[in-house]
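Q: Can someone sanity-check these two? First one:
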Amino acid sequence: MKNFGYDRRGERRRGPDVWRKMISWLSVIGWILMLVALVLFDLAKPHMMTFFDRFFHVSGATVWNYQLTLYIFFVMVAGFVISVSGLLINARRHRRKKDHYSLSLMLLGIVSLLGAVYYMFRFWQQY
């Protein structure tokens, strides 16, 4: 039995359109923001004392840099906004069986949301 419905016309898409490219670029930009947040996190955390620090009597920061943690929060919120906007574009474009949702944007959204919530519970009382 032959299927004379949707499959008869075949695939008319000739490659990634503007929306598919935008979803990919939003994913890349979002993960770059996540990398920036990790670097800021490393700069904001207190210095961990090592053997050589104790041996040479070198003192380091013992408290968090709260200004940098605020920047981390803003970067996490920006990553969440990028993720949600990319997923909305993806949902609007999702019409065929072969279309799929971007797993990268879903993971970015979850990680960004968890990071922002962690910030609010961990550092919000400092301001």
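And here is the second, same format, sequence then tokens:
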Amino acid sequence: CRLLGGGLRLVYVHRAVGHRQSGGTLREATAAVEGLGVSDVTLYRRCPSALPYMQLGAFNTGTPRERVLLRTLLGTGSLSRLASRTARAAARRPRARRWHRLLYDCSYWRGVRRAVPNHDTWQRLTRGPTILMYHACGHPGERASRYLIPGGRFRRQMQWLKWRRYHVLGLDEFLGYHSEHRLPPARSVVITFDDGYADNRAIAYPILRRHGFPATIFVVSGAAGSTNQWDREGELAGRPLSPWSELAEMRREGTIRIGAHTGSHVALPTVGAERLREEVEGSRGELERNLGVPVLTFAYPYGEHDADSREAVERAGYRGACCSHSGVNDPTTNPYLLRRAEVTGSCSLLRFALALEFGATRFRVRPATGPSRYAHTAHTAHTAHTAAPASGPRPNARNDGSPPVMAP
């Protein structure tokens, strides 16, 4: 904490290997890990800025299956049975690591739960916000598709949020919690739309206003008032986009915030440095000139990004950016790689409820090879595989920062 307060940066060297000799019995080892969970809660109280570097802020990093198993074990108190299974697996080396990691995580979080002051804090730590991603809303008679959700289905989803008493936050409000190292309310949801279609104003906006839900629309600034020209053969090709007057009206009435989605909806990793700067900085400037308000959030077109594009977004002064990785957003999530759950037009209410819980509507998960949530700690990240700095020698903590990627 003192080093961070003095302005130093922590950099994780992904090829470094540490070894720790553990003595004593398995019971003594699990007790030591529980103590680590207790001490991390104490450290967070004393130094909130340490949260992004601790396992304490990474409950949702694993796959949905792993999180369900961890919650079940914590809820049933089956740690002794898990410990005995780990001891048996130690004789079969290929399986030992998996059980050891699960035992480690379960012991750590049992210590955390013992140390947190109340149930609300526990829920805030273990149920991070889900950011929903929409595109277009269909008029009566339009067929649902991946990027086109019928207006009636969208209305029922918003009614579900209201009925289930989810906390619907604005994206800027969530980023405020994140930058100040505060824990958002449990069961928080953020609503976003990509591209800025005219039907967002005609269909989605009245529903959001009726419920008092904030939302962010990421606008392709060079196409406002025109049509979708980048999706030439796709399902949204030629679809009308909101003009400046409608964007300003929604922004003025307070429910809608506007974010940038580049000037021409180009995949940023495919362009040169000068075009990259124009798309990122120029889009923000054009939006601010036409709307008269600060634009502080960004979404990568097609969800594609690399180290250069992320650095350009941060350098342009945005507070955060959304990608298309699936998952829940923990305090350790990189604010320039915010995860989102894509809500398709055929998404049932059951799948919608699962998306709120797990940050995804599809659950075949493969390991991610994308950038870490900690790429932002080194402002001149050199590779797309920089991993998270550890808060200590924790070889089994799932704290590598790679968000789960949903297989198609």
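A (reply): Looked at the second one. The first helix runs from residue 2 to 5. The CA atoms of residues 40 and 56 lie 7 Å apart.
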